[in-house]
Design brief:
The chain is an alpha/beta fold and 272 residues long. The chain is 39% helix and 18% strand. The chain folds into two domains: 182 residues, Vaccinia Virus protein VP39 (Rossmann fold, 3-Layer(aba) Sandwich), CATH 3.40.50.150; 73 residues, rRNA adenine dimethylase, C-terminal domain (Helicase, Ruva Protein, domain 3, Orthogonal Bundle). The strands form two sheets. It has a seven-stranded mixed beta sheet with strand order 4-3-2-5-6-9-7, with helices on both faces. Strands 1-8 form a two-stranded antiparallel ribbon. The longest helix is centred in the C-terminal third of the chain and has 14 residues. The radius of gyration is 21 Å and the shape is elongated.
């Protein structure tokens, strides 16, 4: 089928890769799988052959009609909708289980979709997602690496991620200008484990990573925190005064957030 570049449509044409993506979900017999952006249905067919039911969320009207004609309704439900508005909680309740998700994410809204999935994490079990290689490297990287940053911490706060494999442009029609990486995301949010408030910790992390060339202390002082509070909190958390955010694991960032609450209660949240 013809593609629409403005919707970021690049259809996967690699049969081996399609099987690898479907198999990466694990055993889905009798389970409900949500597919984000099924396009022409290449991955949809592999999922339908393995899962109990597939919910295919497709924005493009013509593709949605094509999918409805291609697959039986008792195996595949096609939802013509922007995935950013899709109700994962309702779909999970209807299925009576946490959902598995698959998606070849459009590059231009990758971050928005990731945040949507994170916000729906209570309804999700795991996701197998394909994104631009550079984005996958940022998502899955650890502290101290060049790619580690705000996106890494934000996504990993909702569960562990791992890169699975990378595909060249010729695996798609039309070929994109970049390589694409498939990664696995297990939804196991860490906020309760680390004693964190989700609504204030994530804005705090954004400020911590605001300018990568600046030290963590300078970034925090720029939010209005007093130098004395920042210095004391870093010392309490066991973090060197010249450290940068990209050198710190999530546990250290959590410890610093707690320390800031102790020295100036509420200020880390209020000014982040």
């Amino acid at each position: 089928m013809p593609t629409k570049p403005k919707l970021g449509q690049n259809f996967l044409n690699d049969a081996q890769a399609i099987d690898r993506i479907a198999n990466s979900l694990g055993d889905v017999a009798g389970r409900t799988v949500v597919e984000i952006g099924p396009g022409a249905g290449a991955i949809t067919g592999a999922l339908a052959a393995r899962a109990g039911h597939v919910v295919a969320v497709e924005l493009d009207h013509e593709l949605a009609l094509h999918l409805q004609m291609q697959f039986p309704a008792d195996k595949v439900t096609v939802i013509e909708q922007d995935v950013l508005h899709f109700d994962f909680a309702a779909a999970s309740a209807a299925a009576g289980e946490r959902l598995k998700v698959v998606g070849n994410l459009p590059y231009y809204i990758t971050s928005q979709i990731l945040l949507r999935l994170a916000a729906s994490s209570a309804s999700l079990d795991r996701a197998i997602l394909m994104v631009q290689r550079e984005v996958a490297d940022r998502i899955t990287s650890g502290p101290g690496s060049r790619d580690y940053g705000l996106l890494s911490v934000t996504v990993q706060m909702y569960g562990p991620c791992e890169n699975l494999f990378t595909l060249p442009p010729e695996s798609f029609t039309p070929p994109p200008d970049v390589h694409s990486t498939v990664f696995r995301w297990r939804f196991e949010p860490r906020f309760v484990e680390l004693g964190l408030d989700e609504k204030s910790f994530l804005p705090f992390v954004r400020k911590a990573f605001h300018q990568k060339r600046k030290t963590l202390a300078n970034n925090l002082r720029a939010t209005g925190l007093t130098p004395a509070a920042v210095t004391a909190a870093l010392e309490r958390a066991g973090i060197e005064s010249h450290a940068r955010a990209e050198a710190l694991p999530i546990e250290a960032l959590a410890a610093l957030w707690h320390s800031l609450q102790d020295f100036e209660p509420g200020i880390a949240a209020d000014r982040a």
